[in-house]
Amino acid sequence: MALGDELLLLAIVPGRRRIRIRGADRLRFALRASELVDLGLARRITVGPRQIEVTGSQHVEDRRLSNVLRSLSAASPPPSLKDWLRRTPRSLTIEYLSRLEDQKVVRVRRWRDPGGRARHDILFVDLPRRRALLARLDSVVHSGSAMPEAADDISLAMLVQAAGLARAVYPGLRGITGRRRLAALSASALFMPASARTSLDADAELAAAVTTGADALTRQLLGELSDLYAEFTTGGHSLAHGLDPGSWSEGGTASTGHHSSGHGNGSHGD
Question: What is the DSSP letter of 105?
């Protein structure tokens, strides 16, 4: 799974009556950011202060990431990180939901509301797969590990924090410790020197270099995401206004046009 697939799976929260996507107002921007992290970890791009630079055109196995890389390569002039994130398509969360559906991780019912808008109810989520992902993330959060082999998990943890998904990952009173550790890990990953997080030897040098690059990229992404979220929440305007994630039904988020009835399959709602 790509980082974006994992991020969306963590955002899908099952409850007693329905399954909801949490953090919908921020999620598509974090998904867009995750694609850059994946390409950075694959050593296909670097992000400078003024533009995103394509550094490798070798084949990327994931079709979506390959298309993103192609778009970045064709852009003239090369986009800045801020512009790339601001141009996030409204449909991105739905596109990732379809990816999870193709992987048999979710099952979705599509319907139209009385206004003719397409909606998506999540009828099923692969809970064992989500629990395995949570366990992997939890091992990094609780250990504070930032070794080269955990670069993708560190990036995922930081994107979870940036997208406001800490409560989806660590819900309720029992999750307080986890949320605190997630916040601390994100802060330490932002400010701790890379040399303090990696043990350099002959075998680890390349992996550490990749991790250092991913750390730098993730720091830039978190800064831009924070600015973007703040821009749309200043003056009483929430991200839900004008940045409608649209077209899926969460059963409890007014900005998405909810569908309140449960489906009675034992994996729904809260």
Answer: S
